[in-house]
Amino acid sequence: MVKVILDNITKRFDDFAALKGVTLEITDKEFMALLGPSGSGKSTLLYTIAGIYRPTSGRIYFDDRDVTDVPPKDRNVGLVFQNWALYPHMKVFDNIAFPLELRKFPKEEIAKKVKEVAEMLRIETLLNRYPWQLSGGQQQRVAIARALVKEPDVLLLDEPLSNLDALLRLEVRAELKRLQKELGITAVYVTHDQAEALAMADRIAVIKEGEILQVGDPDEVYYKPKYRFVGGFLGSPPMNFLDAEVQDPYLDVYGNRILIPIQYRELVKKLGVRKVILGFRPHDAEVVRGVAEGLVGTVYSFEPLGREQIVTVSVNGASLKVFAPEGEHFTFGEQVTVKLREDRIILFDKKTEKALEFLEE
Amino acid sequence: MKDVETRPKRYERVIILALLLASLPLILGFSLLTISSLSTNMVTNLDPDSFHSTLENWINLFKGKIATTGGIRVNIWRITLNTLVVALGVAGVVTGISALAGYSLSRIDFRGRKILMVLLLILHAFPGVALIVGVYLLYRLTFPQSHDLVGLYSFIYVILARAALEIPMSIWLMKGFFDTIPWEFEWSGIIDGASRITVWRKIMLPLIKPGVLAVALFAFLAGWQDIIYVRTFLIHPTLATFIEANIEAEYSHMPLIAAAGTVYLLPTIIFFITAQQLLLQSYSGGIKG
Ligand SMILES: Nc1ncnc2c1ncn2[C@@H]1O[C@H](COP(=O)(O)OP(=O)(O)OP(=O)(O)O)[C@@H](O)[C@H]1O
Ligand SMILES: [Mg+2]
Questions:
Q1: How far is CA A333 from CA A255, A305, A340, B160, B237, in A?
Q2: CA–CA distance, A179 with A177 (Å, rounded to integer)
Q3: What is the pLDDT of residue B185?
Q4: pLDDT at B283
Q5: Does ligand 1 lie within 6 Å of residue A48's CB atom?
Q6: Residue A20 beta carbon below 6 angstroms from any ligand 1 atom
Q7: CB burial class (10 A; 0-12, 13-18, 19+) of residue B244?
Q8: Are residues A207 and A244 in the same domain?
Q9: Cβ–Cβ below 8 Å for A79 and B203
Q10: Are residues A122 and A149 in the same domain?
Q11: A88, B284: Cβ pair inside 8 Å?
Q12: Is the distance from the beta carbon of residue A41 to the nearest atom of ligand 1 less than 6 Å?
């Protein structure tokens, strides 16, 4: 169980920079999610922590120990690969036992440890099978068992649930979170699924094009996105963004005038920004019929989703999504007004797409 | 493994017929050889009347008589054993070296790797006959003084020399097999604490087992069938050189040589019948679904 410190890590492949100055501290026993779109460098970062890749520059520390040049086997990490990489020619037992055999554990002890970890992951009846005789969910458990059996200091998981179907994914993610807490193991969990990150992690690091945009607990990154990208990546449906122009004390939003939110009034004056992006989440607004104070538009589409329903409203050409309460129905083309919850509005600078409160950082 | 079940059937018969016609000379040749070995006369004139069935040729072959008149005796078992030693030797050397070298070329980033690969290809392009003068020179240079060692020496030499001819292509084949294995298997092994050589032995080799078997079999056949290198370097005869030497000898009884020829061809036949199974046999990957 260790604290992992990444200090200004850069990784280049020839002249392509996959990681650009990543600095991140993962505290002991923490569940850190690394969230980002495909190709953002998540796997690269994970492999760098594991020691498969050596950073082009920057240092990695496990507690106070500089492990930047330490080979993988001396780092005591467990890694679950994106495709699990179970050895197809070995039975489940041998797959799990492999790390222990390499460490020359005595036979009885190997059998005991494999049995323990198999019971923990409820695969003890499958030990005699080959990986290809297992379902996806079972294979995934075997991969986790193999990573856990050597009692690693850090557990690294590379989108381990991405090969599972949606229902199974929900089940396993709750289990995995519980397991991590029970074992008290430092974990880095790579995913491109924002719901997974929000549901499982103690903290989330959002990564884009090799740079970490924001680190924080799930509420922080969800409610206080530092960048437009973060707001747009988290949540389903994601945050709405509308171009707006400052006309003190109002914002002009596609021909609608709304007051600048209280929390931003001083800041807008101080920064003297004119062009901003107004961001709000679909549940931080309500739709009412007819014309009222707010953003006036027409219903473009209406999707009932059981308890919640999504209304897509077109405001002078701009499109936004809002949740409508249960039982309320809207027809296409109907005129509506979207009323925003003022304290939940986030304003981003148009040019840098950074939230105004972080603009001066 | 299953093909697309709705593929067009129109040309299927034509293709099968064409393939049959193309392989007819081979099938015919081998059949005539085998039939002749069971007859008192050769039947290669395609005249059914010349076939008089007998097992005598095979009996004589295993008794080691090379002429029906009985005079000349050779130990056919000994010759078969020689052939087997050469073939297994070549197979062993080729498989061992190419499995290691193929892995290195596929997986290890060292200087001169690209050049080495090109050189291997060039080396493969040289026909064995073109190299034989140089190889013979080396043979004379290292020829042992002591008489007792000559037999052993010639065996080792012919195995190494013949293997050297096969190695460049085999390395390329092996490299190709290793290239198909995802890096994750290897990384997983390394993180689990394995050295590169352990990864090679315990993870990579088992994963390309069908490929290793194929390379080994091709090398085995190369050693089994070789004539030029064996005749130049090996003191003792193998089946190939024995048949070649006797095929025109006055004393030899041709149907008997046909029996020897059948034995000589046996591994090839067995190989090509079983090869399909062997080459297609592979593990169904790590991922399902
Ligand atoms: N060995 C390599 N050589 C060159 N470029 C690479 C290499 N590995 C990764 N890259 C590049 O680095 C970037 C990040 O790759 P990485 O695999 O880390 O993405 P990822 O975030 O894990 O994506 P995904 O969610 O699709 O797995 C990609 O643009 C990729 O093309
Ligand atoms: Mg990845």
A1: 19, 20, 21, 85, 95
A2: 5
A3: 95
A4: 39
A5: no
A6: no
A7: middle
A8: no
A9: no
A10: yes
A11: yes
A12: yes
Give the range of the structural domain holding residue B54, as residue numbers without chain letter: 9-63
For residue B272, being part of any structural domain is answered with no
For residues B52 and B101, state if they share a domain.
no
Beta strands in A254-342 (DSSP E): 256-259, 275-280, 285-289, 295-305, 308-315, 318-324, 335-340
Please name the member of A79, A88, A99 whose beta carbon is closest to the beta carbon of B207. Answer: A88
Nearest to A281 by CA among A318, A237, A250, A228: A237
Higher-pLDDT residue of A1 and A121 is A121
Give B175 to chain A, closest Cα distance, Å. Answer: 20
Q: State residue A355's pLDDT score.
A: 95
Residues A95 and A193 in one domain: yes
Report chain A's mean pLDDT, rounded to a whole number. 93
Predicted TM-score (pTM) above 0.90:
no
B152 and B230 in a common domain: yes
Q: Residues B83, B190: one domain?
A: yes
**pLDDT under 70: residue ranges of chain B:** 1-3, 7-8, 66-72, 276-289
Same-domain check for residues A95 and A184: yes
B262, part of any domain: no
CA of B39 to the centre of ligand 1 (A): 69
B286 closest CB neighbour out of A79, A85, A150: A85
Q: How distant is the Cα of A164 from the closest Cα of chain B, in angstroms?
A: 9
Q: What's the confidence (pLDDT) of residue A46? A: 96
* 8 Å CB contact of A132 and B189: no
The reply to whether B33 and B155 lie within a common domain is: no
| B114, B141: one domain | yes
Same domain, B104 and B32: no
Nearest C-alpha in B relative to A139:
B287
Nearest CA to ligand 1 atom 5: A13
Ligand nearest to C-alpha A18 = 1
B81 and B198 part of one domain: yes
Spatial separation of the C-alpha atoms in residues B289 and B280, rounded to whole Å: 21
Ligand 1 atom nearest the C-alpha of A14 is 4
Prior bond of A99 cis (ω within 30°): no
The pLDDT of residue B130: 83
Tell me if ipTM is over 0.90: no
Note the pLDDT of residue A219. 96
pLDDT tens per residue, range A29-49 = 999 999 999 999 999 999 999
Instruction: Give me the number of domains chain B comprises.
Output: 2
Query: What whole-number percentage of chain A has pLDDT above 70?
Result: 100
Which atom of ligand 1 is the closest one to the Cα of A18? 12
Cα dist. A71→A36, A96, A332, B65, B192 in Å?
A: 27, 21, 61, 66, 11
Give yes or no: residues A271 and A177 share one domain.
no
Establish how many alpha carbons lie within 13 A of residue A90's alpha carbon, considering only the half-sphere containing its beta carbon.
Answer: 21
User: In whole angstroms, what separates CA A36 from the centre of its chain?
Assistant: 6
Task: Answer whether A73 sits within 8 Å of B190, measured CB to CB.
Answer: yes
Does B197 fall in a domain?
Answer: yes
Q: Which one of A232, A249, A266 terminates a domain?
A: A232
A99 to B193: CB separation less than 8 angstroms, yes or no:
yes
- Give contacts of B203 with chain A, Cβ < 8 Å: 87
- A197, pLDDT greater than 70: yes
CA atoms within 13 A of residue B220's CA, in its CB half-sphere:
17
Count interface pairs A-B at CB distance under 8 A: 84
**Assigned domain for B185 exists:** yes
